[in-house]
Amino acid sequence: MNKIQIEDREFEILIENDNICKRTRLIGIQINLDYENRCPLFIGVLNGSFMFMGDLLKEITVSCEVAFIQVSSYSGAKSSGKVKEILGLPDDIHNRDIIIVEDIVDTGLTLSHILKELYKQKPASVKVCSLLLKPAALKEPLEELEYVGFELANDFVVGYGLDYNGLGRNLNDIYRTKTVVPSAS
Ligand SMILES: O=P(O)(O)OC[C@H]1O[C@H](OP(=O)(O)OP(=O)(O)O)[C@H](O)[C@@H]1O
Ligand code: HPA
Fold first, then answer.
1. Which of 106, 155, 163, 173 is catalytic?
2. Can you give the CATH number for the domain in which 50 is found?
3. How far is 97 from 175, CA to CA, in rounded Å?
4. Quick one: pLDDT at residue 76?
5. Which of 16, 73, 79, 97 has the most CB atoms within 10 Å of its CB?
6. Which sign, positive or negative, has the C-alpha torsion 177, 110, 62, 36?
């Protein structure tokens, strides 16, 4: 399936599942080496990370724990801007080695917000593992970004957890549309 249609947009194949699996295996090997004799806490950012998190964790052989958070955006009652709230953040991460797992880092704003909240609890270390990264869209450098699967151009992508208007998360492969559209959910 090289081309797919989701609602009003046509997408073309960008990364096949085979390549995602191979890259994920390599990232897993690296994490196992880096965290030997430690017990990292993997924190997946929902919804988009659910597939990558599942496949990545199958490659992890060091002792570890797993949690999920969700970042919801809503308009604050008193402010005109968007307020981000983090749901499900564990409250016992003091002195823990944290690995945040994302499907994509685009502008990096979501991650910056998560990192700010995490550091309040003084974890021992924080690294980020993201399947996808759009370097040209990043608003500021993120030194915690240690493990990246694939670097992309500024095209909008769907599949393997990523959505367009809530659709396409179940696709095995990753697809892109040339037209740049705003973040869809
Ligand atoms: O780097 P940024 O520009 O902040 O974008 C990246 C974020 O956007 C997506 O989440 P989204 O808010 O669309 O929610 P979802 O995971 O439920 O799709 C993605 O899963 C990242 O969390
Ligand atoms: O390219 C993207 N696709 C889906 N969700 C996203 N969230 C940020 N960037 C993207």
1. 106
2. 3.40.50.2020
3. 33
4. 43
5. 97
6. positive
In a domain, 117, yes or no: yes
- Give yes or no for residue 79 having a pLDDT over 50: no
With bands split at pLDDT 50, 70 and 90, how would you rate the model's confidence at 84? confident
- Asked, for residue 165, whether it belongs to a domain, the answer is no
| Res. 178 pLDDT band, cuts 50 70 90 | confident
Asked casually if ipTM beats, i.e. exceeds, 0.90, the reply is yes
Beta bridge partners of 32: none
With respect to residue 9, please indicate whether it lies within any of the assigned structural domains. Answer: no
* Other beta carbons less than 10 A from residue 168's beta carbon: 22
Query: For a substitution probing ligand 2, which of 104, 111, 139 has the most ligand atoms within 8 Å of its CB?
Result: 104
Residue 104 CB–ligand 1 contact under 6 Å: yes
Structure tokens at 54: 């599942």
Domain that residue 119 falls in: 41-72+82-156
Peptide bond before 37: cis, by omega within 30 degrees of 0? no
106 CB within 6 A, ligand 2: yes
Q: Which residues pair with 75 in a beta bridge?
A: 82
Instruction: Please tell me the number of the ligand nearest to residue 50's CA.
Output: 1
